[in-house]
Amino acid sequence: MNKVLKNSWALFIGMGFIMMSYGFQGSLLGVRAVQEEFSLTSTGFMMSGYFVGYFIGAATIPNIISRVGHIRVFAAFASLASLVILVHSVLIDPFIWFILRVLTGVSMVCIYTVAESWLNDRSSNRNRGSVLSVYMVILYGAMGIGMFLLNFSSPKNFEPFILVSVITSAALIPILLTKKKAPTFKRIKAMTLSDLYEASPFGMISSFFYGTIQSALFTLLAVYATSMNFTILEISIVTFLLAVSGAVSQFPVGKISDMYDRRKVIIFSTFGAAFFALLAILVSRQMYLPAGLATSKTWFYIFLILFSFCSLPMFSLILAHTNDYIPREKFVAAGAGLQFVFGLGAMSGPFLCSIFMDIVGSNGFFFFLFFFHAIIGIFGVYRMKVRPTVDNPDSQFVAMPQTITPAGIELNPSTEPIDEPVKEDGKIN
Question: Among 115-124, 248-257, 300-309, 313-322, which is the least confidently predicted range?
Fold first, then answer.
């Protein structure tokens, strides 16, 4: 573990700053959109721009990295992300913000790909599991801290946007000052969609719908809380609880999925998430009323945590389930394919969820989460009736952050062995 930190400290610090700004700006834009009285559909449309950009960037970044290298790409797109957030505070319009969110999505997927391919280059078979664990802790921890920065100043002011830009720019310093040689970028091929569906229909379909769920969950939770008249501190608490409880739940849920039928664990988890989404609606009651008149939010916080415990490990479960039906040498390709399908679903999530909220009201947010989790669970029950469970000794659950790229999936200890990192003098790092 010490060797991992020694070889990758600059990257970890840089990614910590990036995720801090990412967590901050997601809540900031959601709250500001409500305060600017954007319609719910406009807000959902605007927020979906991030995932459109993420999808575009995922397709184009390999060529860019191959041409100019990791450090230049990281510096360029971190700078772009820093610039774009400032424009939000100047040009306040849903369509312009959509374009800016597209640019942010392109920037973030480029940054993730650079970071994760770099970590792969610094890893060996002995420590890549540790590398992934440290990476996950930093991503979720920094994102949680960033969500509390919402209390720095009113979202109506320009100062929060400047702070996001400053934090993003700070991420460049350790990366640009590192003496470590940048890795050689390795292209990763994905399985075709037909091959992926043939290997695991449940894995592919559930990945698509889970992308729809995740994109709406992380972009519109702050919008929901703002529309329910939560204070800025309460919004910070809600978004923090979502991220941290989801991170904590990865390992116990994953352990259970390695012990029992993984499809059953996915089905119970997704129905559990749907159930707690309904309970969150029931206990919301008059939370939106002013202080002194509003009902207690304690049970809402509890059910949100339980929802997160059930929902957030789902992508890792889906990836492990898909690996149950394919040989080990295809794990990374299958992961890349699932990420592609996940991205397709994610592009529509915020917009569809905003329509639910427009029709039903604020609690349409949780009706949306209930509906799509239920679809995954019902399809899982159907697949269990038409296809027997397969025991693949090479497959195991590995906790993965929701933002993982195909390069990051290579850090999975159950994938094919990778070469030991070698210094220029021939000694191992």
Answer: 115-124
pLDDT confidence of residue 325: 83
C-alpha triplet 303, 21, 341: angle, nearest 5°: 65
Cα–Cα distance, 85 to 90 (Å, whole number): 10
Take residue 303 and report the two structure tokens written for it: 């059910």
CA distance 244 to 213: 18
Contact 129, 80 (CB under 8 A): no
Per-residue pLDDT at 427 = 42
Within its chain, how far is the Cα of 48 from the centroid?
14
Q: What is the DSSP letter of 151?
A: G
| Percent of the chain's residues with pLDDT above 70 | 89
Helix (H, G, I), strand (E, B) or coil at 361: coil
pTM > 0.85: yes
Query: What letter does residue 330 receive in the DSSP assignment?
Result: G
Q: Kindly give the interhelix angle for 70-88 and 94-122, rounded to the nearest 10 degrees.
A: 150
Token pair for 418: 């990778």
Q: How far apart are the first and last CA of the chain?
A: 12
Token pair belonging to 34:
């409500």
Q: What is the DSSP string of 284-309?
A: HTTTTSPTTTSPP-HHHHHHHHHHHH
Mean pLDDT of 276-295: 79
Are residues 336 and 418 in contact, defined by beta-carbon separation less than 8 angstroms?
no
Report the pLDDT averaged over residues 35-62.
88
Mean pLDDT taken over the chain: 84
Helix (H) or strand (E) holding 93: none
DSSP 8-state symbol, 396: -
CA dist 187 and 234 (Å) reads 43
What average pLDDT does the segment 220-249 reach?
A: 88
Question: CATH for 2-173+190-409, among 1.10.1740.10, 3.40.50.360, 3.40.50.12160, 1.20.1250.20?
Answer: 1.20.1250.20
Smallest Cα–Cα separation from 94: which of 169, 33, 4, 175?
33
Which residues have CB under 8 Å from 316's CB, separation 6+? 250, 254, 397, 398, 399, 400
- Tell me the C-alpha distance between 36 and 38, whole Å: 6
Per DSSP, the chain holds a count of helices (H) and strands (E) of: 16, 0
What CA–CA distance (Å, rounded) separates 239 from 247?
13
The domain locations on the chain are 2-173+190-409
State how far the Cα of 49 lies from the Cα of 53, in Å rounded to an integer: 6
Residue 184's pLDDT band (cuts 50, 70, 90): low
